[in-house]
Amino acid sequence: EKGGYEHFMLKEIYEQPRSIYDCMRGRIYPLEGKVQLGGIKEYTEKFKNAQRIIIVACGTSWHAGLVGEYLIEEYARIPVEVEYASEFRYRNPIINENDIVIAISQSGETADTMAAIEMAKEKGATIFGICNVVGASIPRLSHAGIYTHAGPEIGVASTKAFTAQVTALTLMAFYMAETKGTIAKSKLIGLLSELERIPKLVEKALQSDQYILSIAEKFKDVRNALFLGRGSGFPVALEGALKLKEISYIHAEGYPAAEMKHGPIALIDEEMPVIVIATKNSSYEKVISNIQEVKARKGVVIAIVTEGDTEVTKMADYSIEIPHTDEAFLPLIATIPLQLLSYHIAVLRGSNVDQPRNLAKSVTVE
Ligand code: F6R
Question: Of 9, 86, 110, which is best to mutate to test ligand 1, by the most ligand atoms within 8 angstroms of its C-beta?
Answer without folding.
Answer: 110
